Amino acid sequence: MATSTANLISSSSRQHNVMSRSHSQSQLVLELIGPEEEGPKYYSIPAEISNEPAVVKLMQSGKKLHILNSHILVASKSRGRVICSVCNKRIGGNFSTRQAYQCRDCRIICHKSCHQQIDWKCKNSTSISNLHVEEVDWAEFLRHHQLREFISVGNICDRKNNFKNILIFPFFNLTI
C-alpha cells in the first residue's frame, strides 16, 4: 500500500478515514453500489495505479468521487449558464467545457480543470464523516487481474456429447 495512504488505517477496523488525509491533491475514491442492506462501498484509488487496465475497468463499474477539503466532488454535465465557483467563468459551450465537478453537500460547481484549486472547506459537509474507505491490497489485486488475463473460459464437448466448462491456462487445462 502506498505510504501516503498508510496513515489512513484506523486501529479499530481495517478502513480508511477520508477526513484524516490532507494534501493539495484530491483523493480519488470509487463508490460501488452493493446490495441494498449493505449500502455503498468506497475504495481509495492511488494516483500511481489509476491508469492500470484492471483499475480502469473496475472504475467503470462505479462512480468516481474526488475528495478535497471535505468536498465530495462528482462529475456532472452543466446545463445552461452556470458559473464556475473557482474561476468565475462560464461552464458550457462544447462537450469538453461542459464537464464539471459538483459537491454532493454544498452543491458548488466548478470546471473539471479547476477542482484542484478549491481551497476552502465544504460548509455543509455531513456525508464525509460517514464515508469510510475500504482497505485494498492493490498489488495483490493487480497481480490477480494479470493472471486472469491469461485465463479464458470455454466449453468443450467430451466423447459422449456432454459439454463441460473448462479454464484454459497457457500450459494446462483444468476442468471445473
UniProtKB/TrEMBL annotation:
Residues 1-20 are annotated as: Disordered. One of its GO terms (molecular function) is metal ion binding. Residues 70-122 form the Phorbol-ester/DAG-type domain. Keywords: Metal-binding, Zinc. SMART domains: C1. The keyword Zinc applies. PANTHER family: C2 DOMAIN-CONTAINING PROTEIN. Gene3D superfamilies: 3.30.60.20. SUPFAM superfamilies: Cysteine-rich domain. This is Phorbol-ester/DAG-type domain-containing protein.
